[in-house]
Automatic annotation (TrEMBL), chain A:
<keyword id="KW-0812">Transmembrane</keyword>
<feature type="transmembrane region" description="Helical">
    <location>
        <begin position="48"/>
        <end position="68"/>
    </location>
</feature>
<dbReference type="Pfam" id="PF02653">
    <property type="entry name" value="BPD_transp_2"/>
</dbReference>
<feature type="transmembrane region" description="Helical">
    <location>
        <begin position="130"/>
        <end position="153"/>
    </location>
</feature>
<dbReference type="InterPro" id="IPR001851">
    <property type="entry name" value="ABC_transp_permease"/>
</dbReference>
<keyword id="KW-1133">Transmembrane helix</keyword>
<dbReference type="InterPro" id="IPR017778">
    <property type="entry name" value="ABC_transptr_urea_perm_UrtC"/>
</dbReference>
<feature type="transmembrane region" description="Helical">
    <location>
        <begin position="297"/>
        <end position="320"/>
    </location>
</feature>
<protein>
    <submittedName>
        <fullName>Urea ABC transporter permease subunit UrtC</fullName>
    </submittedName>
</protein>
Automatic annotation (TrEMBL), chain B:
<dbReference type="InterPro" id="IPR051120">
    <property type="entry name" value="ABC_AA/LPS_Transport"/>
</dbReference>
<protein>
    <submittedName>
        <fullName>Urea ABC transporter ATP-binding protein</fullName>
    </submittedName>
</protein>
<keyword id="KW-0067">ATP-binding</keyword>
<feature type="domain" description="ABC transporter">
    <location>
        <begin position="8"/>
        <end position="248"/>
    </location>
</feature>
<dbReference type="InterPro" id="IPR027417">
    <property type="entry name" value="P-loop_NTPase"/>
</dbReference>
<keyword id="KW-0813">Transport</keyword>
<dbReference type="GO" id="GO:0005886">
    <property type="term" value="C:plasma membrane"/>
</dbReference>
<keyword id="KW-0547">Nucleotide-binding</keyword>
<dbReference type="GO" id="GO:0016887">
    <property type="term" value="F:ATP hydrolysis activity"/>
</dbReference>
């Protein structure tokens, strides 16, 4: 029953994506650990972490596509959920430092010692346990999304107004987390991590392990999102996107459907953030900045909104471009990103995947009226 | 007849928008199984009446009872829909990205809660019912087409089919033949007459030929209240109705 539920969303696109992920999960460990450092096939720890970072962004893009592509909620604050998940993981990693910090205090993280705090704030309790942190990674973004969505959807805030308040939400969080009183490291954030689950966080093998965990999380997120989208619930979500009031008159409480997708998406974004932090080694309030959320929107738009696989591709490609540009032509990156967004909006309204579908349709010269990206097969 | 025997009971319902009285102490009674045609010039309050019954608009004053006991004025749209009131919009509103089949499946009477729809899979009865509705609405050959690719008339029928799938006790149908050819209009009249009997139907329509085709009791609305009620011939002979329709 459950297996059937998870399998029903899988189509050809999913097959390709999952195969690529499976190949990565095998090839990257082999290339990073099984080759000599001077071999042309060798992947440095730095490259592994970079690839891992791309895949974390891909999971964030996937979660954003679930709400933007399928429910029509353009979130300009999705990085908030990502960052909260990241902080939950960061808090666990801080507690693992123990007495190895600069001040050698076994009970308090360095920044608290620096602020002359004498005891651990209540909300830090439990974060020394991995299982607790792992739950919080999803629970904290999930609860915030639930509370936010509850009020926003019940009050029937939609469209650009909703986008603006999501942006306000992430901005407010950024300001809050910048404060030292917040007890989360202020503008320095959380960093100097030593180990995760007892493994040295700098070690090549740990980096490879984190990469594989990210691949697994992305694959699981993709399978879950495809199953949700292919279910009758997913059809209701698309119907809400296209004609919400009609759905209400059919007897569906559309608020609850939106809340379900929104909260699920926030939990997925939280997981992405949690995997991101140990791989980049730091989490600070700048991740909450509106620009981070807007970048995520661009990844989805470039890859193809409402296609699930497209945003994964878009996130990887755009971030690859970003890595290249910021190294080669750093002053041009923002222009390139802005230009990309304009080009995609003007010429590729359905993104790369939509373009691929259009080219495929044009070959046999089929006259279908709607070349829709997310092809929901009936029975 | 007492209130309990009615399917829909409106008494003294008034709605104002920025000082404009869209409904002015409107009173109307629909019996179970009845089909009623509502006519009236533009701005007579026909669509607003549909809005207050289905929960889209809250009346300022007045009582709306469904089946003589449920007060509709305090409920939201989905709750009212689930009581058994279905609505067809003036402009055909179908889910264009979904196939005809999926449009019907979404409308089909089934649990409406998110977790139920997440695990839903169509039963044999569900599929049989959808097939049946596809036949009634003559959309069988179009079942796998996206609803957005249907012609205007086909969309109207699909929407009526969606209402049938909902299996409501009361159907509110807003201008079902607007923009249809004569042949389509005639077919639609047949379709609605088939539906009546098992369901109560309120049809709002401008097209007098179509109303005559239906052959049911007619209510004439004017400036938000009932001007006349009776058979089409009776109301057509009413002097006030003639004045309103033909101008003074």
């Amino acid at each position: 029953m459950l297996t059937r539920f998870f399998l029903m969303g899988l189509d050809k696109k999913a097959g390709v994506l999952l195969t690529v992920l499976a190949v990565l999960a095998v090839a990257v460990p082999v290339m990073a650990l099984g080759t000599a450092p001077d071999s042309p096939w060798h992947l440095s720890t730095h490259t592994v972490a970079l690839l891992g970072k791309y895949l974390c962004f891909a999971l964030l893009a996937l979660s954003l596509d679930l709400v933007w592509g399928f429910v029509g909620i353009l979130s300009l604050g999705h990085a908030a959920f990502f960052t909260l998940g990241g902080y939950a993981m960061g808090m666990y990693l801080m507690r693992q430092i123990g007495s190895r910090g600069v001040y050698g205090n076994a009970d308090l993280p360095d920044f608290m010692v620096f602020l002359n705090w004498t005891e651990l704030p209540w909300y830090w309790h439990g974060f020394d346990q991995f299982w607790f942190a792992a739950i919080m990674v999803m629970l904290v973004p999930g609860l915030l999304a639930f509370a936010f969505g509850w009020f926003a959807f019940r009050s029937r805030v939609t469209g650009v107004y909703l986008s603006i308040i999501t942006q306000a939400m992430t901005f407010a969080l950024m300001l809050a987390f910048f404060r030292n009183d917040m007890g989360l490291g202020g503008n320095n954030g959380l960093t100097d991590f030593k180990e995760i689950l007892g493994f040295d966080i700098q070690a090549a093998s740990t980096r490879v392990g984190l990469f594989v965990a990210t691949v697994v999380a992305l694959a699981a997120g993709y399978i879950l999102a495809s199953a949700v989208v292919a279910s009758k619930l997913g059809k209701v979500l698309i119907a809400v996107r296209d004609a919400e009031s009609r759905v209400r008159f059919l007897g569906y409480e559309t608020d609850r459907y939106k809340l379900f997708a929104w909260t699920l998406s926030a939990c997925m974004a939280g997981v992405a953030g949690a995997l991101y932090v140990p791989q980049v080694g730091i989490i600070n309030p700048s991740e909450f900045s509106p620009a981070s959320s807007i970048e995520a929107v661009i990844w989805v738009a470039v890859g193809g909104r409402g296609t699930l696989a497209g945003p994964v591709l878009g996130a990887v490609l755009v971030n690859f471009g970003k890595s290249y540009f910021t190294a080669a032509l750093p002053e041009l990156w923002l222009f390139a990103l802005g230009g990309l967004f304009v080009l995609v909006t003007l010429f590729l309204p359905k993104g790369i995947l939509g373009l691929a579908a259009q080219l495929r349709d044009r070959l046999p010269a089929r006259a279908t009226v709607t070349a829709k990206p997310a092809d929901q097969k009936g029975v | 007849m007492s209130t309990e025997d009615t399917l829909l009971y409106l008494d003294g319902v008034s709605v104002s928008f920025d000082g404009f009285r869209a409904l002015n102490s409107l009173s109307l009674v629909i019996e179970p199984g009845e089909m009623r045609a509502i006519i009236g010039p533009n701005g007579a309050g026909k669509t607003t009446m549909m809005d207050v019954i289905t929960g889209k608009t809250r009346p300022d004053t007045g009582t709306i009872l469904f089946e003589g006991r449920t007060d509709l004025t305090s409920l939201r749209e989905p709750a009212i829909a689930n009581l058994g009131i279905g609505r067809k919009f003036q402009r055909p509103t179908v889910f264009e990205m979904h196939t005809v089949w999926d449009n019907l499946e979404l409308s089909l009477k089934a649990p409406r809660r998110p977790l139920k729809t997440l695990t839903y899979s169509a039963t044999r009865e569900d599929r049989a019912r959808i097939e049946e509705i596809l036949d009634i609405t003559r959309l069988s050959p179009r079942r796998d087409r996206p609803a957005g690719s249907l012609s205007h008339g086909e969309k109207q029928w699909l929407e009526i089919g969606m209402l049938l799938a909902q299996d409501p006790k009361l159907l509110l149908v807003d201008e079902p033949v607007a923009g249809m050819t004569d042949a389509e209009t005639e077919q639609t009249a047949h379709l609605l007459k088939d539906i009546a009997g098992k369901h109560s139907v309120i049809v709002v329509e401008h097209d007098m030929v179509f109303v005559r085709e239906l052959g049911v009791k007619v209510t004439v609305l004017h400036e938000g209240s009932v001007l006349a009620e009776g058979s089409l011939d009776t109301v057509s002979a009413n002097k006030q109705v003639i004045d309103v329709y033909l101008g003074r």
